[in-house]
Design a protein that fits this description.
By secondary structure, the chain is mainly alpha-helical. The protein contains 6 helices and no strands. 13% of the residues are buried.
């Protein structure tokens, strides 16, 4: 969705601000992407139309910056709304149930987990003295 917003803003802004002296075929190519617009600008400069090339380059750059800035603001807004909705709608703790206790207690079956002996063994090991060193005991 954000890419569509960006592409729409870029092409609209670029199309309305490209120099009127730019031939329609080059206008079409420049509207395909920022890279294509830069290629058109370079080609114009290489063929002796430096001022027109610089105008196309500047227009493509400003259109890109505007479109990406607006798209980023929209993406940030969507993320903020999602975070706010999650903070409001999701409970801070799992709900307690009469048969199994809290959600955390329901997961504890009274037996140590498979990882518990590994964790205990790793905690008993001395810390390595050099980066990358593994202590085997």
């Amino acid at each position: 969705m954000i890419g569509s917003v960006y592409a729409s803003l870029y092409s609209t802004r670029l199309g309305s601000r490209l120099p009127a002296a730019l031939p329609s075929a080059l206008r079409h190519v420049a509207g395909q992407s920022v890279g294509a617009a830069y290629a058109v600008a370079q080609r114009l400069e290489d063929t002796g139309h430096g001022q027109l090339g610089q105008m196309v380059h500047a227009t493509a750059s400003s259109s890109f910056i505007h479109a990406i800035a607006v798209a980023c603001v929209i993406a940030g807004s969507v993320a903020a709304v999602g975070a706010l909705a999650a903070a409001i709608a999701l409970p801070a703790q799992p709900p307690a149930t009469a048969a199994t206790g809290t959600g955390a207690q329901a997961l504890n079956l009274g037996e140590p987990s498979v990882a518990e002996p590994i964790i205990v063994a790793l905690e008993a090991q001395p810390a390595p003295t050099r980066p990358g060193e593994v202590t085997v005991g």
